[in-house]
Amino acid sequence: MSAAPGRSQASSHRSPQGGGIPVNALKLGAISLLLLVAGCGGNDSSRTTVAQPRVDQRASTPVGDAAPGAPATDASVTERRLLDAAALNTAELQAAEGSGAPRGLSAKAAAVVLPVYRFFNTQTSAHFYTLSTTERDQVRNTLPVFSYEGPAFSAAPSAEAGLSPVHRFFNVQTGVHFYTISEDEKTLVQSALPQFHYEGVAYHASQVAGAGLFPLYRFYLANKGFHFYTASAAEAAQVRATLPQYRDEGVGYYVPGAASGTPAPQVTLTAASTSVAHGSATTLTWSATNATDCSAAGGWSGTQPVAGSGSTGVLTASSSFTLICSGPGGSGSQSVAVGVTGTGAVTGLNYPSNQSYSDDLRFKFTGANLLDPYPATYIWRVNLRHQNGYYTTFFWGPDGPFTAQAYYGAHPYPDGGGSNTTTHKWEVSIEGTDVVTDLNSHPTAVNYGAWHTQALVVRRVNTDEIEASFYWNLPDTTQVIRHTTQYADYANTFGSRPYAGKALSFGDAPWSIGNERLSGVLRGIQIYANVLTLPEILNEAAAPLSTGAGAANIWYLNLNPTPTDISDQSGQGHHPAWAGAARPSLWVGP
Prior knowledge:
Number of helices: 8
Strand content: 35-45%
Largest sheet: 8 strands, antiparallel
Number of strands: 32
Distance between the termini: 51 Å
């Protein structure tokens, strides 16, 4: 929806669309919204909550042609009742005009005015409106079928002199919301149209015109049974001129606009450096005036405070960062481009084979700088040389003698065990158990001399069990080895911070230095302090920090480690240390 005259308009706003929508698509839209949207009841938008799934609740005393306890499904009956309802709204606004009610925004000076946000439902071709930033963010983050169109107009979250509640209904047949300021229309809809589920007060507006107030126009699309609302006179005129299927129902109510004297937000966004080397980061700093909330787009995402600073995270490609802020006077945005120079050397750590020499070549995290054992997600790339016996990619566990308790790892395992064994299978090693069987019966024989992108997800599944899932040949997520282990004393087995005597070790086993080496190249290391979903893992493997969950939970990142640089490049400061003076050699890719 376009904003009220004189306000800035979001470029993604679109007018209502005609054409038929399949019934199944309408049902899908209804189901999605039933799981999400809530009544914006009460007088404080910050307390608006997301509704729980609900069933179709029927009115107890329907009137007219509908059978008792049944919704008014007959299209002609519904149409007649909605026509009557619209007439009631018009009549009530006309009565308010002659009642001597306070006119103009200045007469309602005590009112706090906030933006109402608009979404376009790509399944139903309808629009959804909410004053709640919590609900706005929930829709944006969980329902991709809703295209965010930004602030549409303004309204008050609470009742003040001269302002009336705007009621919100959800039509369980169409999956679309209906809004009215008329108490008479509300009563008729509740009694005669039980398919409209009442969700409470959406916001507050005026029943009468006045200085600083603008009409919100209301249209009805009969063949789909839903309404469209706009505070833009130009958009309303466009609908009248080009979409005759939309019945013009006149003014729904009056909303505040920028002409009330409230300035639009002014946004400032800068980068400490607009050109960085591949694999580096820079700091973004921003502020906004006349704004109540801000959200990020482009190279970053999520809700942001109206002023702050933060790292971009590691950049491997040029990105544009945008901040969009909204307030009573509309919305404003600012973008900054950060270029990435160079392609970045592809490097890795080249570990020698077993028993080549006895020096400790591990790098490890210990003490207060050790990742919690769960929940955790590990992603890495490995290319192995053939060797006899055991391998180690990494272990979370004892930083010393093997105890067969409180540890896990994922790497090749010699068939049947033994240091002289020549063939291997991928395995999850956990609590003295070596699991080499794929969950979907894929053969798990190790393919030497080939690159593998792999991931290990470790999570607690109940009070005394831990589950480890090893995806050993991504992006094929069906190739997975999984094992669940039960602990008699779960909490004390792993211990608690600072995890005395424990380490997250890469490249060799702490309890058998020189005898269980990686024997190959390790690179592309990404560690997250949470469980990521499979789509998130695949996206993060392709582009680190590209998902909201990845950016929020990154714990360590070094895509191109070298013997002289194993530092944490995620910005989280979790730097490992070499266990001794020896180092693996440098591998440089093509």
